[in-house]
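Appendix C reproduces, verbatim, an entry submitted by the partner laboratory led by Prof. M.T., so that reviewers can inspect both the input and the predicted structure.
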Amino acid sequence: MIAVNNAMCKHLFDNRYGTGHSTMDALMRSTNRSLTGAVVVVAGYGWCGKGIAARAAGMGARVVVTEVEPIKALEAAHDGLWVMPMAHAAPMGDFFVTSTGTKRILTPAHFEMMKDGAVLANAGHFFEEIDVAGLRGMAVREALQRTDVHGFQLSDGRWINVLADGKIVNISAADGHPAEILDMSFALQALSARYVAEHHRELPHAVIPVPHEIDSEVARLKLHAMGIAIDTLSDEQRQYLEDTNK
């Protein structure tokens, strides 16, 4: 078995650019609200979170990142983003996007502090990232504000809005990744399947990474399709690198 999901072309393009693009599409399509000047809180700064934060910043949003991993938090800070605990971000955010892969990222303790009209969306793999049941338990009224926008009114009159019932927002409330991104993931799958068919007798009985030559070939083909040329190493340069890496 080959772990296609861990290939660099999958991380960089499908997770980062694909998720970033389709999540912004879902936020705008569902709410028809402007991201320009809004505070967008992104929970998690993995590959998907990086893409969401970058695309939100590109739309003119002020981006806050929440993290539990110090290195990722430091990376977000060095990328010029605000970094803070969710308890500090909760009163600031206009949009909240979770992308962590774990549960209860947004909880009743956070809902109590949020602005009227706050929008909550989950771009992680599991719908438990937003405690929708907890929010429902706090609400005195519910209403479908727009397609894919479920509003919960709290006792003080504030409305908290959840997109796509807390499911994966870029798939549930938008069209998912564009074809220009998915073609790379499908190419990785196809070439990896061919590699297994041709080399299975000498492969270990284990989950193995995508061979570097397949990752590189997919990137090369994508560059070619985009009409982009790059340099190649000369024999002298290649020999020099081989010698210095011995």
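The beta strands are 2-3, 39-43, 62-66, 82-83, 95-98, 118-122, 141-146, 149-153, 159-163, 208-209. Additional entries are available on request from the coordinating office.
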